[in-house]
Design brief:
The chain has about 300 residues and is an alpha+beta fold. The chain has helices at about 10-20, 35-55, 70-75, 80, 95-105, 130-135, 180-200, 215-230, 255-260, 280-290, 300-305, and strands at about 25, 35, 60, 65-70, 90, 115-125, 145-155, 170-180, 205-210, 235-240, 245-255, 270-280. About 35% of the residues are buried. Bound molecules: adenosine monophosphate and zinc ion (ZN). Zinc ion binds near residues 251 and 275.
């Protein structure tokens, strides 16, 4: 069983407030919520603000569904680094007797996984992942590389919690750069300022942190230390129910995906990649946490920035 993380009493109380205000509704599974009208209005307004902020670069939209070919997960390193976070899609492939036996177990809510077999699909764990094989299939990059936009993609992470900002399924919006090393590094610095300005413009107090991913196991601790030393990941943290929460993050993968997928620049070098990710539910939660559960009474400047 994956570790269930209890939220603090403030986080649990914040979740209760969100539920009673109709901003979120429970589904019966921790970290899987339905969104009410005002939560969704705020999230979509944020999504549109990200679109306006990125417009100067005219990123190419490439919107993928929340299912990802299993083969890509096996290939891109995720299964090795984050086996504890991955979600897989299994389905029934048996005869009538097996169907009846499965139903019998299911009717008692017992384990019917023995009747399920692996499909070619897993749940998409990060919005940018499907873009790398797609870009590689096009052949060498154009002279200036590519900038892509994932749209507000649903992603899955197996991290059940009663902290509303730790969801199992949520929208991740990423702007992704695939180009030569220098270009990606420069682009990343540009977005560091841009993302901060966007989020401060929404009245959020932010902290910037050099961060690492929750790599699995003992080797994972080493990988996390390396990632931090090389400053490959930074996060912008805002308060949600009194606790700092990473609402946006930027990853520099160096030539990891370029090597795996054989992505080459116009000059024949292995491409580098970087991405700027916004956790849309987390940003929205930070906004409700900072400005209150009544959207119409948020500060005028914030509503104007969101065009609400
Ligand atoms: P990451 O790929 O881990 O850097 O995630 C990108 C962004 O997604 C983070 O900056 C968070 O805002 C958001 N995020 C990550 N994990 C979760 C989660 N369990 N629930 C909600 N949002 C998340
Ligand atoms: Zn990414």
């Amino acid at each position: 069983m994956p570790a269930f993380r209890s939220g603090s009493s403030e986080q649990v109380a914040f979740l209760e407030d969100l539920l009673s205000a109709g901003l979120l509704s429970r589904t019966g599974v921790h970290g899987v919520y339905a969104r009410g009208a005002d939560f969704e209005r705020a999230r979509l307004a944020l999504d549109a603000l990200i679109t306006r902020t990125a417009a100067a670069e005219s990123p190419e939209p490439l919107y993928h569904p929340p299912l990802f070919p299993r083969e890509q997960l096996e290939r891109n390193g995720y299964l090795g680094s984050f086996p504890h976070l991955a979600g897989t899609v299994f389905s029934f492939d048996g005869d009538e007797t097996a169907a009846a036996d499965q139903l019998e177990l299911a009717s008692r809510h017992e384990d019917w996984s023995g009747f399920q077999s692996m499909t070619e699909m897993v749940l998409t764990p990060a919005a940018c992942y499907p873009l790398y094989p797609a870009v590689a299939a096009r052949g060498p990059l154009p002279q200036d590389g590519l900038t892509l936009d994932t749209g507000d993609a649903y992603v899955f992470r197996r991290e059940p919690s009663s902290d509303p900002s730790r969801m199992q399924i949520f929208h991740m919006r990423e702007i992704v750069r695939v180009a030569g090393r220098e270009t990606v590094i420069e682009w990343r610095n540009l977005w560091r300022a841009r993302a901060e300005e966007l989020l401060r413009g929404l009245g959020l107090e932010l902290e910037l942190d050099i961060a690492s991913d929750p790599f699995f196991g003992r080797t994972g601790r080493l990988l996390a230390a390396q990632q931090r030393d090389q400053e490959l990941k930074w996060e912008l943290l805002a308060s949600v129910a009194g606790e700092p929460s990473a609402i946006a993050s930027s990853n520099y993968h160096q030539d990891h995906f370029g090597e795996i997928y054989d992505i080459v620049t116009a000059d024949g070098e292995v491409a580098h990649t970087g991405c700027m990710a916004f956790g849309e539910e987390r940003v929205t939660l930070a906004l409700f946490s900072a400005h209150g559960s009544d959207l119409s009474s948020w500060p005028a400047g914030v509503l104007a920035a969101l065009k609400l």
